[in-house]
Structures are given as C-alpha cells and as structure tokens.
Amino acid sequence: MQIYLDYSATTPTRQEAIAAMQAVLTQQWGNPSSLHEWGQRAAMILEQARVQVASLINAPNSDTIVFTSGGTEANNLVIMGVARLSLVPQHIIISSVEHSAITEPANLLEKWGWEVTRLGVDSKGRVNPQDLKAALQHNTVLVSVIYGQSEIGTVQPIAELCQIARQHGALFHTDAVQAAGRLPIDVQQLPVDLLSLSSHKLYGTQGAGALYIRPGVELIPLLGGGGQERGLRSGTQALPAIAGFGVAAELAAKELATETPRLIKLRDRLFSLLADVPGLIPTGDLEHRLPHHVSFCLESADGEKLSGKTIVRQLNLAGIGISAGSACHSGKLSPSPILLAMGYHQNAAFGGIRLTLGRDTTAADIDWTAMVLKQVLQRLNLNLSLVQR
Q1: Known catalytic residues?
Q2: Is the per-residue pLDDT at 332 higher than 80?
C-alpha cells in the first residue's frame, strides 16, 4: 500500500493536462512567435492557456498573465523587476516566513545596498497588519507576503495587508503558489498588484508558472531576448507545459467548490486522529489554514536523533510519502527557519513534518497514515529513551 501525502511539494499531472500536452507535442508544435500557419496554431494554444489561467484568479483580462518557468521565476521577476526600476537602493518589506524564492533575491538586494524589513509573525505564523503599517517608509516600493505558507499551512490576512500597502503607495505582491486552485482568489476584489502561480502545484506539469501583473504596474524584465510575454519574459514559451497548465487551472476552478470542502474534512480528520499523540504538536494557524495542509513539530526532537527527516524516512519505508520542514545542506541538518521565526526552540525546529493532501487522498489513507505515524513515533521515542539511559 502506497500513500502520497506531499502534494505541497508537487502534484501528479492530471490526465486531462497530459492529453493537452501530448496534442501540442504531436500536432501543435509550432513556435507561437512564427507568423505562418504552424506558428499561429501554436499561438492560439498559448492564448487559450492564458485565458484559462487568468480565469482561475478572475483576472480582468488575459494580458495580465505572464508565463514563466514556475513560481520561483515569477517571484524573482517581482523582486528584481521592481528593484531595477529604481536608480538608487530603496526599501522593501517581506515576511519572515517567505519561500526562499523571495528571501534569496531579497538577501541579494540587501547586499546591493537596499533596506529589507522582514516582518515578524506570531506563534501561528501570521503577520500582524499593524506591524506592516509600522514598517512602511517613505521609500518603500514593494511589500511581498506569502498567501499560504507551504511548511506550516498558515494563510495570511492578504486583503488587509494589500489595503495597507496600497494606501501607502507601495506595490503589493503575494506568492499564491500553494493557495491557487485550493482557495478562491479574485484579483478584481483582492487589491494585489502582483501574484505568483505554479502549474505543478495544481495538477499541471512541472516547468510552467505565471505572474499576474495588475494593469499599469511596471517591471524591468530579467531576461533580454526576443520580447515574448510582452517583453517581460523573453524566450520561446514552453508550449506543452503551458497548455497543460491552462487545462489544469480551468479544471481546478471548476472543482474548487467541491474539492476544497472535501480536503478540509480530511485535513481535520487527520488532526483529530493525531491529537492525543504525546510530543506531536500542531504547527501553524488551525483556523486560517490551507485546506489540504497538516503539519506538526516533534517536541522531543533532539537534532538528528529524532528529526523530521527521520520521520520522513520511517514513513517512506511504510509506503507513505510526507516531507520535513528542516533543511539539509552539505550533509548537515539545519533547523527550519520558519519554525524559528515563529518562536520554536531550535530542537523543535529540527522536528517539523508536513502531510499535504490531494485529489487522490481518501479517508482510508488518512486513517492508515495516522495509525502508522503513531506506531513510528512510539517506537522512535522508546528507542530514544533507551539510548539516553
């Protein structure tokens, strides 16, 4: 029996998206920039996908969607594209629980003389809007706060944060990679200027993403070349991946009303089944939370003796795929910066685990996983106690 519970890392490509990709690869393989019939057929596929992705977030028109290679590129285009508009270093604000696709370019800007404010979060991983108000400066050009945090599942008060940034005159960006297709997003109601998406998080293929850019917002492109994507992302578009992305986005929008409540029910079932496990502490905000996301830290974790990665390996042996929050660099385990930012002790920050649910997850999967995880933790804690004696 195999159970995949790592949908926040990647989702299996759905058959409808695969069919769209195969059609492009075998029939509509032209270059969308070519003027002849082959190119124009490809261009129609490209624009159809743009409409489908725009519809997922209720964008005012499809021209607001710029295709990228994924969420990482979309995030980098925001941070560096906004920064390159300024002749001298300015000020940007991010949260302390951002994806590395935001923190790394922000760190680079800081080396170049920019001022970067990293908003703290509470013990549930939420940003306080009043902290954003206090952090804004006369030269703040951009605020970027993740929509739904991939490690702990917390959903931020994006609408309120957007309003604060807009009133100040700063651009607002959100990385919605984990939220899109799982929560309703309407950029005509949400006053966001820029929003990042990724295909393989919503049952499209890896290698495609998108950036929503509100009309009137300017960016300097990262790549010079043929001027594709309104000059903001030069390079021949990955048409098969984009076609699959479009189909996956359209289907995600259609299924949102039924799939999201189903995932919430399964998510809460798993939390409930594991509520009485000693030392297994839920992380993130249990109320403002991604519908598919379950996460914990191991209170008794002590470095590699009982790290999140140890749990991942043990569940993998049992045929269950989950992920850990801590990171491994050059063979050395590092505590989760997200859990540290939330105030967790360093030992506990080694013990983060994440179980994320998807279209194929059933109640039986949840029940079996809970039973196996309990047994694994009981055995590991027993072994740890014997070693410490």
Answers
A1: 328
A2: no
